[in-house]
Specification:
Elements: E1 3-4, E2 22-26, H1 30-42, E3 46-50, H2 53-62, E4 67-71, H3 79-87, H4 92-95, E5 99-103, H5 108-116, E6 121-124, E7 127-128, H6 129-177, E8 188-195, E9 203-209, E10 215-222, H7 226-246, H8 250-265, E11 271-278, E12 284-290, E13 295-298, E14 304-307, E15 325-328, E16 334-338, H9 355-360, H10 369-380, E17 393-400
Parallel strand pairs: 1-7, 2-3, 2-4, 4-5, 5-6
Antiparallel strand pairs: 8-17, 9-10, 10-11, 11-12, 12-15, 13-14, 13-16, 16-17
Length: about 400
C-alpha cells in the first residue's frame, strides 16, 4: 500500500478533538503500517500496529482502541471477516469500535462492500493524509457523542427507575387516604370508583361523620396532574377533617377549607369540591359546590336533577359565599358525586360528554348503587382497547334503599 502525502513537507493535523485517542492500524504491508503510524503519531494520536486479522482480534479484545484502521484486502482473515466478528461480539466496547476500512478498490461496489461489512467509513488507497485525518476526527467525534448519549440514557434510566419508585410510594400513600371499602350506612348504599391517569392522581373523596350525626360525603379535584396534584389531595383530606371538627354545616366546612387552602398557597393553587351533608334517617340533605361539576340526582321515578356549584374553586378567592341547596331523598333516589374526568375521560374530543349528557345516562332502574355506578361508567368511559383516560376519574354514587 502507498500513502500519498500532500505537497507540504510537514503534515499539520489538528489534535484538539482527541489527541490521546488510541488508533490500531491493521495492514499486512509493513511499510504501509509504518508510514500510517508515523503520520498519525505526528498528529498526536497513540498508534499501535499489527499485520493480520487474528492478531488484531486479540489486541482489540485485550484493550479496545478508540478507532480501528483496517485493511480490506488481507491474506487469511480479510478485513470484512474481522469486522463481522467484531460487530457480533457480546461486549459493547468491542462491537462498537469505530472502524475505517482501507481499500485499494475505488469502485462503488467496493464502497458498498465496506459499509455492508460494518465499516463506519472507508478511505481508498493510495491514502490522502488530509482525508484520513478528517475522517478519523469525524469518527472520533461521533464516537464521543455516542458515549455521551449512552451516559445520558443511563442517567435517564436511573431517573426513570427512581421516579417509578417514588410514584409507587406515593401511590401507596394516596391509597391509604382513599376509602378502601364502601361506607355501611343503614338504609343506604354507597359505591365508588377511583381511576388515576398514572399511579397517583389529583382526585380524592371520602365521608365524615359530623357532630350532629349527619354524614358529609365530599369529593375534590386538585389543579394539575400527577404527583403535584396528588399532594393537594393529601392536604384536602386533612383540611376537610379539620373543618368538620370545627364546623357543623357543609357551607362552613367549605369556607374553612377555602380559608386554610388559600392561606397556604396564596391563590397559586386551587381545587374544586362538592359535598353533601346527608341525614340518613329521614333523607334530608344539604349540597354545596365550589367550582365542581354539578351534583347529579336520579329519582326513583326516572326524573333527574342537576345541582350546580355556585362558589368558585377553593383557594382562589379569600372570601367566598358558599350556598347550601336543600335536598330530600326518597327510597329509590340516588345522587352522584364525580370529577370532570368522568365526562371528559376520552382523549377523543368527539367523545367528550357534557354534564347534561351525563345526567341523561343515570339509570333509575339500577337495583343498587353499585349497578348504577357501573352502568354510567360503561357509557361514559372509553373502551380501553381504543382509547385511554386523559384525566383522573373519580365517582361516588349514594342511593337510598327502596323498601322491598
Amino acid at each position: 500500500m502507498t500513502v500519498r502525502l500532500p505537497s507540504e513537507s510537514k503534515i499539520e493535523m489538528s489534535t484538539s478533538n482527541d489527541s490521546h485517542a488510541e488508533i490500531l492500524i491493521v495492514d499486512d504491508d509493513a511499510l504501509s503500517r509504518k508510514i500510517l503510524a508515523q503520520v498519525l503519531t505526528s498528529a498526536g494520536y497513540n498508534c499501535q500496529v499489527c499485520g493480520n486479522g487474528a492478531e488484531a482480534l486479540e489486541m482489540i479484545h485485550a484493550e479496545p482502541p478508540s478507532l480501528l484502521l483496517l485493511d480490506f484486502d488481507m491474506p487469511g482473515a480479510t478485513g470484512a471477516e474481522v469486522l463481522k466478528e467484531l460487530r457480533s461480539d457480546q461486549h459493547q466496547a468491542v462491537a462498537q469500535v469505530p472502524t475505517i476500512m482501507l481499500t485499494a478498490h475505488g469502485s462503488e461496489e467496493s464502497e458498498v462492500s465496506c459499509l455492508h461489512a460494518g465499516a463506519d467509513d472507508f478511505v481508498t488507497k493510495p491514502v490522502n493524509a488530509a482525508v484520513l485525518r478528517a475522517r478519523i476526527e469525524t469518527q472520533l467525534r461521533l464516537s464521543s457523542m455516542r458515549r455521551q448519549l449512552e451516559t445520558q440514557n443511563d442517567e435517564l434510566e436511573r431517573w426513570r427507575r427512581d421516579l417509578e419508585r417514588d410514584l409507587a410510594a406515593a401511590r401507596l400513600t394516596q391509597q391509604s387516604l382513599i376509602p378502601q371499602k364502601p361506607l355501611v350506612l343503614p338504609g343506604w348504599e354507597v359505591a365508588a370508583c377511583y381511576r388515576p391517569v398514572i399511579q397517583v392522581g389529583g382526585d380524592i373523596y371520602g365521608w365524615l361523620r359530623m357532630k350532629d350525626g349527619r354524614t358529609l360525603f365530599w369529593i375534590a379535584d386538585g389543579s394539575g396532574h400527577g404527583a403535584a396534584a396528588a399532594l393537594l389531595t393529601t392536604l384536602a383530606k386533612l383540611l376537610f377533617h379539620h373543618g368538620k371538627v370545627e364546623h357543623n354545616s357543609p357551607a362552613s366546612v367549605m369556607e374553612a377549607v377555602n380559608n386554610d387552602f388559600r392561606s397556604i398557597f396564596g391563590g397559586r393553587s386551587f381545587m374544586t369540591a362538592m359535598c353533601v351533608a346527608l341525614n340518613h334517617t329521614n333523607g334530608s340533605a344539604l349540597a354545596v359546590g365550589a367550582g365542581h361539576p354539578p351534583l347529579l340526582i336520579v329519582r326513583h321515578n326516572g326524573a333527574t336533577e342537576s345541582i350546580p356549584s355556585v362558589a368558585p374553586p377553593l383557594g382562589l378567592i379569600e372570601r367566598s359565599e358558599f350556598v347550601e341547596t336543600p335536598l330530600d331523598f326518597k327510597p329509590g333516589d340516588a345522587f352522584l358525586l364525580y370529577t370532570d374526568g368522568l365526562f371528559g375521560s376520552s382523549k377523543n374530543e368527539e367523545r367528550r360528554l357534557t354534564p347534561r349528557q351525563l345526567e341523561k345516562m343515570l339509570d333509575h332502574s339500577a337495583p343498587t348503587a353499585e349497578v348504577l355506578l357501573k352502568r354510567i361508567l360503561e357509557r361514559a368511559t372509553p373502551n380501553p382497547a381504543e382509547d385511554s383516560l386523559s384525566d383522573d376519574m373519580t365517582a361516588l354514587a349514594v342511593r337510598r334503599v327502596a323498601p322491598e
